[in-house]
Each structure stands twice: as structure tokens, then as C-alpha cells.
UniProtKB/TrEMBL annotation:
It is a multi-pass membrane protein. A CDP-1,2-diacyl-sn-glycerol binds at residues 28-31, 69, 73, 79. Belongs to the CDP-alcohol phosphatidyltransferase class-I family. This is Phosphatidylinositol phosphate synthase.
Length: 210
């Protein structure tokens, strides 16, 4: 759904990406800086209960996730390593955000909601893993209700509004996100299952994952 907004965001970020590229800053450096900033802000602000301030700072760094792609396309420096690094660091950024929220919820005595935040973290990682594993086996898996942009928007908006004093919004956001993530995992599993059962059987080497 939010993919429709990507062209507009790209046009806004292009001048900044061009300026950074002129100064010799690589897309991978932007990716790493964005993730470091996201994790640091989430683990600094959220456990202190500074949800609005934390969300503003995190949102700034999350934009680096789009900026690095803009820079790679402009400079023609996109690479397999860059794509791998971006995907891997996305998981680290998500972990920082939801871990920070979970810590604050535990400290404030909202243990059930802290559990939901951790469920959102695990389910979000599973959503991404199912797609990566399916594509590694030669299948497609670009389906689902809540991809990473949607999950980030729901999580950050609900946290930011909670920081402004809107009652129950964080609980609503996290429960909604947990349900949407679980549904997305199911959608992707079903999508891969249908492809697998309709494809000719062939021996597969174990990936060695445990």
C-alpha cells in the first residue's frame, strides 16, 4: 500500500541524495548510519518513556532506508552486497524499535503489552524470513497485508501519539500490528505452499539453518 508513496518520497529525497553522493558518501554508509541512529534513538528515548521525541528522531533515521536506495540508483552503485546489507540492517533497526518499546512497557508495568511488542518483533522478522527463504528457493513471495513500511508506520505513529497523551493508542496499534503480522505470515506461507505443490518435485540441499 505504501509503495504508492515511494515515487513522491523519492523525488523529495533526490536532492539530498545527490548532495551526499557529491561528497563521496556511499549508499552503504547511509544505510549503516540510519540503522545506528534508529537503534540508538529507540534504546535511548523509548525506555525513558519519551515516546514522541523518540519517534521523531527515529523517523528521521528511518528515511535513510529510502535515501540509500535513491543514492544507489543515481550513482549506479547498487550491488548484491548493498541489498544484503540493507535487508540485514532493517532487521536490526526493527529490533531496536520494538525492544525499546518493550523495555518501557515492562518498566511501566504493562507486561502484557510488552509481550505483544515482542510478538510484533518476532512476527515481523518471520514475515521477512519467509519471503527471503521462498525467493532463495526460486519462488515469489511479494504478498501480504503488512510489509515492513506498513509495520513501521503503525508502530511509530501509535508510539508517537501515545507520547502526546492519546489514550489507548499504543495498545490499539500494537494489537493491530500483531494481528496484521500474523495474517501476513499466513498469507505468505499459503502463497509459497501453492507454488510448491504445483511445481515439479526436485531434491533440495539443506540450508544448514537451525
Amino acid at each position: 500500500m505504501l509503495k504508492l508513496l515511494r515515487p513522491a518520497v523519492t523525488r523529495v529525497l533526490t536532492p539530498l541524495g545527490r548532495a551526499l553522493a557529491r561528497h563521496g558518501i556511499s549508499p552503504n554508509a547511509v544505510t549503516a548510519a540510519g540503522t545506528l541512529g534508529t537503534v540508538a534513538a529507540a534504546l535511548f528515548f523509548y525506555p525513558r518513556g519519551q515516546l514522541f521525541a523518540g519517534t521523531v528522531v527515529i523517523t528521521f533515521f528511518v528515511l535513510a532506508d529510502l535515501l540509500d536506495g535513491v543514492m544507489a540508483r543515481m550513482s549506479g552503485t547498487g550491488s548484491t552486497w548493498g541489498a544484503f546489507l540493507d535487508s540485514t540492517l532493517d532487521r536490526l533497526g526493527d529490533a531496536g524499535i520494538f525492544s525499546g518499546l518493550a523495555i518501557w512497557l515492562v518498566v511501566s508495568g504493562q507486561r502484557t503489552l510488552a509481550g505483544i511488542a515482542l510478538f510484533c518483533l518476532v512476527a515481523g522478522a518471520l514475515v521477512s524470513y519467509v519471503k527471503a527463504r521462498a525467493e532463495g528457493l526460486g519462488m515469489t513471495c511479494d504478498v501480504g497485508l503488512a510489509e515492513r513500511p506498513e509495520r513501521l508506520v503503525v508502530g511509530l505513529v501509535s508510539a508517537g501519539l501515545a507520547g502526546l497523551g492519546v489514550p489507548y493508542i499504543l495498545a490499539v496499534g500494537l494489537w493491530l500490528l500483531a494481528a496484521a503480522s500474523a495474517i501476513t505470515v499466513g498469507q505468505r506461507l499459503l502463497h509459497v505452499y501453492r507454488q510448491a505443490v504445483s511445481a515439479p518435485s526436485r531434491p533440495l540441499r539443506s540450508s544448514g539453518e537451525r
